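Agenda item 2: (2S)-amino(hydroxy)ethanoic acid complex prediction
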Amino acid sequence: MDATPRPPLHPLRIDRDRLLRRIDELAAIGALPGGGVCRLALTDADRQGRDQVVAWMRELDLEVTVDRIGNVVGRRRGREESLDPVVTGSHIDTVRTGGPLDGNLGVLAGLEVVAALRDAGITTRRPLAVAFFTNEEGARFAPDMMGSGVQQGALDLDHCLKTVGIDGETVGDELWRIGYAGDATPGLRAHAYVELHIEQGPVLDREGITIGAVTGVQGISWTEVTLRGVSNHAGTTPMALRHDAGLVAAEIAVFLRRLALEIGPPMVATVGALTLRPNLVNVVANHAVLTLDLRHTDEATLQEAERRAFAEVAALAEREGVQVTTRRLARFEPVAFAEAIIGRVEGIAEAMGLSVRRMPSGAGHDAQMFAPHCPTGMIFVPSIDGISHNIRERTAPDDVVAGADVLLQLLLELAG
Ligand code: HGY
Ligand code: MN
Ligand code: MN
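Presented output:
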């Protein structure tokens, strides 16, 4: 996009109370007793959340389509219907211990922008679309960003439909079961894509900055490691005679931490899931399944980290006499967002008197699937104490509203 001076801010603003109310109403679906939300992809709670958001889309007279991987797109007519839409959105599935904002904020803020335009009687030149994508989290079915990845051509539809989740169900069966196996062939040409999302990390909160102009998303590597040893009596088996899958799993977790510290920021490495069998106090574990989550903004460094991690897994297993198999769960290279979008997030925030800084995203997002195909960017708002994927996930209401107003201005500019 060119560098000509941009139009002054539009006087329209979002309706604060309506947005905050919608966030609470959606968070009530799948609410956890101690606060927080659990709407794992394609569960009944996810279906209820989907039904609620679709109802809000219909109230806004959006044309709702559901595609074969369950992505839902609400389209608002533009003055020139033949033009590609400007798209916004995110996801409404959550991790098991999720908060009210991860993903949900981007979808509800997009609907709020549409509601504000409707109330003001404004029809943009280009159509606008608000989407929620299937299984962004990847917590039940790997990989993450599954729906947006299929829609934008990064993932294969049939392969994803056959994917078996952590509870043994397939994506395809669960889509049918909850009534979201749509007819539409996945595919959406966007003129531009902008996503509002919480940072989910500590940077904005720590620096007291309201808006993040996101420069891109770091590379992600997920691998499932299965270790097979020999179960034996914990009391009678000498240490030298053990083939302890649990020990190897623990050493892998320790190695990942050391590897990330040695490579240094922004390298992160996590063993988030670990199951032992038979998982009994007096039995040496003969079976361990664990997940490796490696991330870095630089592809070559991420590949080097993968190489070293896999080599160490093999060496540790060899030393303990344990068999090892690995299965790739997700692999996405780092993505850069469009300078034109990043610059406008900064410019609009500054024009609104909001503090703003550029920053990469540590988390994966649906936006990264649009970046190769159209001008794409994200707007971050702070996560209090940098907490997310945790029931304590919160963002100050003023920051939620500020982010939604920046989104409104940018969508108005892009849609004309
Ligand atoms: O794992 C992630 O980065 C995202 O929450 N799916
Ligand atoms: Mn998210
Ligand atoms: Mn998430």
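Discussion summary: The two ends are 14 Å apart (CA to CA).
Owner for follow-up: CH.
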